[in-house]
Amino acid sequence: MSILNALTLAQSDINHSINFPLIIIKKEGGVLKIDARTNEGWQAIFMPSQNFSQQLDNLKIVLREKLKNRENLEYIDLRFGNRVFYKTF
């Protein structure tokens, strides 16, 4: 399954109101990184070289258990295994 297909499926799994209208794939220091911008204004940061389904599962868990109110959310960084970092402003 491609990363774009996985993100599309994740939208329905996570919350029907969240969309990823802009996906940016960058190479930083020789490593690919995916910035998936949401229609809510925050971004999810993924590393495609790692287990992508685990990163999506971590995103679902964080949104469900920690970030029910995403009004001031800037990003969720899912690149570090089971350690998920997020920043609010």
What is the element layout, followed by pairings?
Blueprint: H1 3-14, E1 22-28, E2 31-37, E3 43-46, H2 52-65, E4 73-80, E5 83-88
Parallel strand pairs: 3-4
Antiparallel strand pairs: 1-2, 2-3, 4-5
Helix pairs in contact: 1-2
Overview of the molecule:
This protein is an alpha+beta fold and 89 residues long. The protein has one domain (3-88). The chain has two helices and five strands; from the N terminus they run H-E-E-E-H-E-E. It has a five-stranded mixed β-sheet, with helices on one face. The longest helix has 14 residues, at 52-65. The relative contact order is 0.17.
Short descriptors:
89 residues, alpha+beta, five-stranded mixed sheet, 2 helices, 36% strand
What's this model, at a glance?
The chain has 89 residues and is an alpha+beta fold. The protein has 2 helices and 5 strands, in the order αβββαββ.
Percent in helix: 25-40%
The number of helices is 2
Question: Could you give the order of strands across the largest sheet?
Answer: 1-2-3-4-5
Distance between the termini: 34 Å
Multimeric status of the protein? single chain
Let me know the largest β-sheet: 5 strands, mixed
Number of domains: 1
Enumerate the spans where pLDDT stays under 50 for 5 or more consecutive residues: none
Instruction: Give, in order, the helices and strands.
Output: HEEEHEE
The backbone outline, from C-alpha atoms, is globular
Question: Which value, in Å, is the CA radius of gyration?
Answer: 12 Å
Structural class: alpha+beta
Percent of residues in beta strands?
A: 35-45%
- In total, the number of strands is 5
| Average pLDDT, all residues | 85
